[in-house]
Amino acid sequence: YTHPRDIGQSNQELIYALNLSTRVFTMNSACAEILLSLGLKSSKVQALVGAADKNIFMPAVLKTRDRPCVGFCLGFRGHQHYRDRKNYDLIVELIKTMDNADVMILGKNWSQYERFPELQALPYFRYIEVSYEQYPAYYQQMDVFVSASQLEGGPIPLIEAMMCNVFPVVSNTGFAPDIIRQGENGFLFDVNASVETIYELIQKAITMNIDVRKTVEHLTWENFSLEVQKAMFSV
Fold it and tell me: Quick one: CA dihedral 84, 204, 122, 71, positive or negative?
């Protein structure tokens, strides 16, 4: 169960079906609480935060840039559901304020977004569309990772960026509050926060010199798999 969404069933039907299952895994503790509040048996549900490969997503050996780099990692989809969730318009407005840093979007299909030319016109903006295997090299160029989504199950790129020792500034959704300790290994902001509020947190994040990788090193796919096996064998 990744996040709340309309799947054509009532909550009553959903919970009835989930209570017949062996185990229900959620991507974050907030979703587990939602299902419990709707009537899912506590013995059925377990929050299991995502992961990344710490041997692939490694910190940069040395950063020698003159300007900080702020990065985003998400693709573009034109469906209104994704537009609402991913907050594309706010991202554009936010990037347009950040002329004191280089800004990168790592993702796919942004050329289909009608406001993409506004970003391309900015001299400090880069758009990177590469294979997933190349993502670590671009995370390593970032100093700050930003996610402004209104609704997430994860996002997995948050963990990938933190594995690369990139300081996160992310909306308070998905598993972000499960892994971020405010001001210690990242900054959380409300999902309805203004551009100005997010910008101020990014400026603070640029000055942070903290090893955030060590706070997520346990979030590996090996450990994720072991937790699934342990949960299933305990049924």
Answer: negative
* 164: amino acid identity, one letter: C
Residue 64 has what pLDDT?
A: 66
Q: Which two tokens stand for residue 202?
A: 């990014």
The contacts found for 185-191 with CB under 8 angstroms, 24 or more apart, are 185/210, 185/212, 185/215, 185/216, 186/162, 186/212, 191/149, 191/150, 191/151
- Total-model pTM: 0.93
Q: Please give the pLDDT value at position 5.
A: 82
Look up residue 135 and give its two tokens. Answer: 């993502």
Does residue 127 register a pLDDT over 90? yes
Residue 125 pLDDT more than 80?
yes
pLDDT at residue 7, as a whole number: 81
Per-residue three-class SS string for the chain: CCCCCCCCCCHHHHHHHHHCCCCEEECCHHHHHHHHHHCCCCCCEEECCCCCCCCCCCCCCCCCCCCCEEEEECCCCCCHHHHHHHCHHHHHHHHCCCCCCEEEEECCCHHHCCCHHHHHCCCCEEEECCCHHHHHHHHCCCCEEEECCCCCCCCHHHHHHHHCCCEEEEECCCCHHHHCCECCCEEEECCCCCHHHHHHHHHHHHCCCCCCHHHCCCCCHHHHHHHHHHHHHCC
Which amino acid type is present at position 23? R
